[in-house]
Amino acid sequence: MSPDHLTTTFAALADPTRRAILARLVSGESSVTRLAEPFEMSLPAISKHLKVLERAGLIARGREAQWRPCRLEAGPLKEASDWIEHYRRFWEQSFDRLEDYLREMQKGVQKKEKKDGSKKQRRH
Amino acid sequence: MSPDHLTTTFAALADPTRRAILARLVSGESSVTRLAEPFEMSLPAISKHLKVLERAGLIARGREAQWRPCRLEAGPLKEASDWIEHYRRFWEQSFDRLEDYLREMQKGVQKKEKKDGSKKQRRH
User: Fold this and answer.
1) What does the alpha-carbon distance between residue B57 and residue B25 come to, in Å, rounded to a whole number?
2) pLDDT tens-digit series, residues A63-113
3) How many Å apart are CA A115 and CA A28, to the nearest integer?
4) Which of B13, B19, B93 to mutate against chain A (most A CBs within 10 Å)?
5) For A74, which of B6, B75, B87 is closest by C-beta distance?
6) For B72, which DSSP code?
7) How far is B20 from chain A (nearest CA, A)?
8) Exposed e or buried b for every residue in A2-27, given b needs 16+ CB within 10 A?
């Protein structure tokens, strides 16, 4: 896969409206008019977003002249996912480190509570 | 997570140099000069890319005045991965469909070969 392909995919995903369009297509293909409904945006503005998604291969459009339904194409998302996957051990490590830190902190608190408790007992 | 956070992450990833910088940081933290080595780019150009990555939270930089090493921060990649993960069933379905198609095609070929074979036998 060429790096430019990944660039096009990530650039297409770097917009909340385009991500929302993909999310709407999860439930099946849709006309542009129906896709545009939830957005406070003109049809030409939505069409522009659809063109970016289409160029990135993230959607495909039917060939019917009157009604060119859009549908999700997940291939580029798989490629993006494969790329990100290489970094999984890094975020898993960070969560492990956070977990270790929280565990140590909790131990510290318990130790302090125990100490304070025995101090109180000594005072009584 | 705010949609803008995801937008910043994907926009930062939508560049081959920035992705290559992240890939270099997999082997550990690095100075800007060392990071810049494989790229045919000026240090200021690399610094600009590093700023984009830093703003997206994909790298962090040390506080040493002389040597501010960059290191990978994978948190935003986890969030991007979680978002893409929602679409997994779509690409898995497409691969299943491709597999079905290839299996059907192979069956068709085998059937044709058998038919051609029996025709030949009849001719002999």
Assistant:
1) 14
2) 876 778 999 999 999 999 999 999 998 888 876 777 777 788 788 877 777
3) 62
4) B13
5) B87
6) E
7) 10
8) eeeebbbbbbbbbbeebbebbebbee
